[in-house]
Amino acid sequence: MKRKTSQRAAIEQVFCERDRPLGIEEILESGRLLVESLNQATVYRNLKLLLENGWLRQVYHPSLGTLYERTGKGHHHHFHCRLCNRVYDLPGCALNEKEAAPAGFVVEDHECFLFGVCPACREK
Ligand SMILES: [Zn+2]
Ligand SMILES: [Zn+2]
């Protein structure tokens, strides 16, 4: 008998195929195509495991809420397409923390979202 894809493997596959930060609904929708038994509770349970073992990290988006992305990419920023609501990774960092904050502020971290229209939506 062929072993069925585990729920966790299905979720991992979704992240590897999309290669961008994902919200719970897209994870659930895409994961269900691989493993039918997936539901919101099982997705959350598996996301929690993948966060705990460091395979995923959370990204807090100002309007989309919590997104999940794969770790190991290094520091980078994100682009939010206002038409398709997808969030894309942007390479590298164009922000100089020392110049961005006034004197007296100690910057420890930053997160940056660019908003606009993605190439796929521009072509429509
Ligand atoms: Zn788009
Ligand atoms: Zn940065």
Automatic annotation (TrEMBL):
UniProt keyword Plastid present = no
Q: Is Metal-binding set as a keyword in this record?
A: yes
Co-factor binding comment:
Binds 1 Mn(2+) or Fe(2+) ion per subunit.
Q: Tell me, what's a Pfam family for it? A: FUR
Q: Which GO terms describe its biological process?
A: negative regulation of DNA-templated transcription; regulation of secondary metabolite biosynthetic process
Q: What is this protein called?
A: Transcriptional repressor
Native species = Candidatus Bilophila faecipullorum
Q: Where does the UniProt annotation place the signal sequence?
A: none
**What cofactor does this protein call for?**
Mn(2+); Fe(2+); Zn(2+)
Keyword entries, A-Z: DNA-binding, Iron, Metal-binding, Repressor, Transcription, Transcription regulation, Zinc
Q: Which residues bind Fe cation?
A: H75, H110
PANTHER family reported in the protein's UniProt record: HYDROGEN PEROXIDE SENSITIVE REPRESSOR, ZINC UPTAKE REGULATION PROTEIN
Q: Which domain of life is it from?
A: Bacteria
**Which molecular-function annotations from GO does this UniProt entry contain?**
DNA-binding transcription factor activity; transcription cis-regulatory region binding; zinc ion binding
Q: Which positions are annotated as binding Zn(2+)? A: C81, C84, C118, C121
Q: Which family does it belong to?
A: Belongs to the Fur family.
